Amino acid sequence: MKPSELAGRLWRALRQPLVATVFGLLVGAAVILACGQNPGAVYLEMFTKSFFSPYYLFSTLTRATPIIICAMATGMAWRAGYINIGVEGQMVAGTFAATVAALYLPGPPPLAALLAWLIGMAAGALYALLPAVLNWKFQVSMVITTLMLNYVANNLASYFVTYPLKDTSGDGLALQTPEIAEALRLPRLSSTSTFNAGFLIAVAVLLFMLFVTKKTVFGYESKMGGFNPSFARYGGTKQVKVMMITMALSGAIASLAGTAEVFGLKFRYADNMLSSTSYAWTGLMAALIADLDPLGMFFVSIFLSGLQIGGSAIQRSLGIPLEIATIIQCCITLFVSVKLVFRLTRKQSAKAEAKGGAQA
What we know:
Blueprint: H1 3-34, H2 39-48, H3 54-78, H4 87-104, H5 109-138, H6 142-162, H7 198-215, H8 217-227, H9 229-234, H10 239-266, H11 279-289, H12 294-318, H13 323-359
């Protein structure tokens, strides 16, 4: 790809997030003024403590890793027209399965680690296939089933870390599994921070998404199915097959987000460790802000991670409430959602006009 083509693609991917970010920052500035602070000084401190200091930059990238992968998992399903709200549950199911496999699989560490990751991906894929099958066989709303299965996954994992798999060697009050072996952990990429090879996995997922969406027949079929299901069926696309593959890939990718967190940072599965951090929901925000473009999702996820890291920093240093970062993040999503609503309204109007014309 030529530099000019790459620059054009980056601009198309980031144009919408940049505009929404400007409006979000303006709203944030108004809130900061209401708190009696200088918005310029607050934003300078926030972004210095999230992007322009090496230690904080590594912290931002570490936190961005699961967010990036969750955004890709969301984008994989949503671009095909399947509203998967269950990325969190699929991430929990896959991560828990991978952790248990890492704890009990015998054999050489490299092989055990590889098998653990694959088992986690399989568990995430199977968990994502459940709502797809219910939708196919019984026309059950995928939005409802994926959302409800989040609670099922979290509560099942909570039971196992509370009772049969609870680590009894340390703090008896902590609901968590034992630590995985050191030989199975992801290597650190920085000697002064927790930045690890999980970020490289996020980059690999980005490259996989770009390849699937731009270079494969399946990527074209899934996109056409999301854009116009009737046209896709008329063109010979097997929608059930596309739905199953899409949801399985979405669940498998989601599992990588939590597995990277366990193998690269936490080294064990703890109760609610993936739900309390809101990785899946932040990834959903990133996917919507970037309009499901893989490159856009990658950079937006890093930006949202930086807002969270910088928000914590200004709370400690300036006494600004942490909720400022949340307000900015939500406002950015809101401004993007307005555009999505207008787009959906136009599409529904066009369908109604076409239907009226056909009847006439």
